[in-house]
Amino acid sequence: MSSGLDDCQSDHRRNLLALYVEKNNSLLSMIDFERTPRVALEFMNREHQKAFDDANALKILLDSALDASGPVAADIENLLQTLLADTVTHFELEQQCMEEYLFPARADHYREHQRVLQWMIDEHSRWDRDHSVETITHLRRYASDEFPGWLLNHIVTMDTVMASYIHRHGGTSI
Fold first, then answer.
1. What is the pTM of this model?
2. Are 86 and 54 in contact (CB under 8 A)?
3. Which phi and psi (to 5°) does residue 72 adopt?
4. CA 20 to 30 Å from 61, out of 43, 73, 77, 167?
5. Where are the domains of the chain?
């Protein structure tokens, strides 16, 4: 179930994407969730879409920061916080599901989530320390390539296996 705040944030992400497409007439390096693999549990698909939307919105902000036409540091900070908070929620929901259905590989899956959360915290800390063009360029690569690449790989490997197992054992969408 989504809250009004979730809906507002999703609308904000979609508006940013629409502005980007209008300005640039392209979706270069944008992740189109409709073309990504789905897993057997719908709540996970919703969380994956939110993660791609967050990364796309962050990329848009970073692009406009590089063009010197865009956001102040607070906007980038807010989206970094949103991406991290949404990812924590996503991972907590998956962990809850893995525990409830005693998914055999839950310890490995949990360790991977912890590794990625630390990576995200490190990227956020980099922004906290330095708002230079080099950091913006680094975070743009993170938002447009590294994080979405990791997420796609995670979906087609660990999440597909986990969701299939839980679905076969009676799990349904949260």
1. 0.80
2. yes
3. -80, 170
4. 43
5. 4-168
